[in-house]
Amino acid sequence: MALESNEKPNQPIDKFESMLKTDDVYFFDADDFEDIIHHYLNNGRIALAKKAIKIGLRQHPVSVELKLLEVEVLVFENQLDLAEHYLDALQVLDGNNEEIYIQRANIYSKKDNHEAAVALLQKALNLSENSFDIHSLLGMEYLFMDDFKLAKESFMYCVAFDQQDYSSLYNVIYCFELLEDYDGAIRYLNDYLNKNPYCEMAWHQLGKLYFAKAKYPEALTSFDFAIISDDTFIGAYFEKGKVLERMGKYNEAIENYEATIQMEDPTSHAYLRIGKCHEQLGNDELAKYHYYHTVHEDPMLDKGWLAFTDFYFRRKNYDKALSYINKALNIDGENPNYWNKCAQINEALGKFDYADFAYKQSVELGNYDLTTWLGWAHVAKCNHDLPGALHILAQGEEFYPESAEIKYKIAGFQLETNDLINARISLIDALHLSFGKLQLFYDEFPQYAEMAWVRNIVTEVERKL
């Protein structure tokens, strides 16, 4: 039997959940069902939302709003054809309902037809009195289309409508960054903060922008205001620590990193930064202590293992460095940075075969840095494989066709193989690319520095430059 609402809890959600635990059936207004369903959808409880939709439509079979919520769930579950079928029927009943166009736009968006989604959202915009949510959806569609200018304008509208819409505010700054208009982002945030001076998120974003532009005093001030606005804002303490670290104020940086650890469970990133600061201060034991905690907190954080490895590498303790990079490789053998560091360590140990293998692995996994090609070629030379070294440099040249470093090294190796014609061509090309880097050639191949043949080429090119 149906019970009156005053016989059970007054709150619709409590009342609904109470009903589910019994065999009783309670009656709800359609508006109550909408509130219940929205509550479950917002909290990701899809099964309960579907149950509420089913019972709601049983009690209110002609409710367009409940049927639209059913469509929303179908779209979420990718039952797009069925959702479109329901929308066709709803459009006959209520052709001017903007939510129908919004759900059709969601379907097109899921099908990667973002232009059609935008067109439908524009129609919804013409029908809607409250267009705030539609502008937010438009902004997302423009992002999918890489139209960052229109996306930015849509999200700006949302922020103008609701100053507390931090999600849209973040997206506005994101669009500025994608447009590489950092000064515009700074101006926008400063204008926003003139109206909302205690918005910690805006201060935080402003500080990050100043940091990116190397305006460290301004960044520091911004993070200080973020902390004043919310003294539990961990992200502001962490970013402030990064600024202080960049400014060489390592003890102050450590204080801010430690503040994040005291306020919340320690993070590997905080331990890592503290370790880096202690290393800069010459506190080797404290640096090692924090690097240990870095990898203990997150064994998958490559920067932690690399910090430990670099710590010993810089101190020429190559055996210890090798043991740590091998631990890293045991955890993640697909990390090109690990293999690159492994190659450098083996090279320093004179284990050129291992170094050659490690460089090869690093490149195959996607590390195409200039230093990688140069280092690998040097290892091949140490293995008495000059043809292999030249082949490696030829591959590197495909990625860095304007690299004087590669050209000078090619010229040197060609001289060592007595390929004078190609050596002359390579040396002339290198000199044209960067005459100022000639010393690199002399440093690596001093046996040719006083060679008349080389001197003549250098003089000839210098005269023409």
TrEMBL record:
Residue stretches of each TPR repeat: 98-131, 200-233, 234-267, 302-335
Keyword Cytoplasm among record annotations: no
Entry keyword annotation includes Iron: no
Keyword terms, alphabetized: TPR repeat
PROSITE patterns: TPR
Pfam families registered for this protein in UniProt: TPR_16, TPR_8
Protein name: Tetratricopeptide repeat protein
